[in-house]
Amino acid sequence: MLTERHLNRYADVLLWGLQTAKSRRIARNDIVLVRFDLAAIRLAEILFAKLLEAGAHPLLRLNPTAAMERDFYTLSNNKQLVYIPPGEETLFTRLNGSISIFAPESITHLAQIDPKRIAKTALSKKILRDLLDKREAQGKFSWTLCIFPTAQLAKHARISQKAYSAQVARACFLNKSDPVAEWQHIYRQAQAIKRWLNRLPVTALHVKSKNVDLHISLGDKRRWVGISGRNIPSFEIFISPDWRGTQGTYYADQPSYRSGNYVRGIRLEFENGRLVQTIAVKGQDFVRHQLKMDHGASRLGEFSLTDKRFSRINRFMANTLYDENYGGPNGNCHIALGSSYSNTYAGKPVELTKPLKRKLGFNESALHWDFVNTEKKRVVALLKSGKKVTIYENGKFTH
């Protein structure tokens, strides 16, 4: 449903995202991995050509089909589930960039798979993610990702594929003659908000809505980041708090699809950083299995806020990339259970060793799962002086 003009603009925006996330343009001889699903092959072709014109070395990798992915988890033995092909680690130590295009032909094909098998594979791949995290901290790697509208995404969002495509085009400014200029404008606005937040001597946050009453300890050496090019689209500004200071109730009023499973109405109760109760209206067994993936899977890894003045997303899209950036009438907040983001460390990224992460309360896990709340809310910051400041209300930052 996206036109050739849309796709060319989409490719330009993705390259802007990759370059912005790395703080420099793609250099000649950079190695850039492009992962894509079959339905998005035309966008991959356009990206391939643009990367060649930039002097990079694009590597193309077609994602497994739904049938392949289902067969992998159904038929693999324990060794096959955790197998890493020869050369994969070497490649990841040399990658300069990664662009992922998700165009799923199905989002429910893994619904009958034992979650433990999915978790086993995810844990085995953590070594590769750690390699890329290290290169990113060194300024040698950046990434971005997007979705391509498909019939299955539209079906689960309960709209037509034409309407789904229109939402993608609107969210990414693909109907504008110069979408990159639109992204640069939002980027500058977000920079001002982040500077304001990072100047505030905040020790803790209190998030309050109809069904949320959550206290979050930010911890030392933290900074707010976001709208950096790493996701297209992305309108969120977020931080990775000290997981040990999480207290209270969080509720995700927006549904979520993960590994083929549909979950809805998730309520999480925290005491002294520990998740003590998990309730879901739909998919409770799957949620509980996922949150037992490893020791960090049930701990707080991220807190995020989206300003409705930025986001053009105004409906459920059955895809976390869009749903965690929902604008609508009230904006949104989301928390992620699982891994934290090293780029929210306020010092030099290369300083953030595993021992220092543990000391500062940065969470580590093979899981990172976002839970979105779109209710009308207020977020109050407690400053070191004891003063309280409202930083977010009625879907907008108060700056």
State the helicity in percent bands. 25-40%
Q: How much beta, percentage-wise? A: 25-35%
- Tell me the total number of β-strands: 18
Mean pLDDT: 95
- Give me the Rg, rounded: 20 Å
Compact overview of the structure:
This protein has 399 residues and is α+β, with helices and mostly antiparallel strands.
Keywords, please?
single chain; 399 residues; alpha+beta; Thermophilic metalloprotease-like; 2 domains; 9-stranded antiparallel β-sheet; 5-stranded antiparallel β-sheet; 13 helices; 27% strand
Task: Report on the architecture of this protein.
With 399 residues, this protein is α+β, with helices and mostly antiparallel strands. It has 2 domains: 179 residues, Thermophilic metalloprotease (M29) (Thermophilic metalloprotease-like); 198 residues, no CATH class. The protein contains 13 helices and 18 strands. Strands 5, 6, 9, 10, 11, 12, 16, 17 and 18 form a 9-stranded antiparallel beta sheet that branches. A 5-stranded antiparallel beta sheet has the order 7-8-13-14-15, with no helix packed on it. A hairpin with a 4-residue loop joins strand 16 and strand 17. Helix 1 crosses helix 2. It is globular, with a radius of gyration of 20 Å. It starts with a helix and ends with a strand. The model has no long low-confidence stretch (mean pLDDT 95).
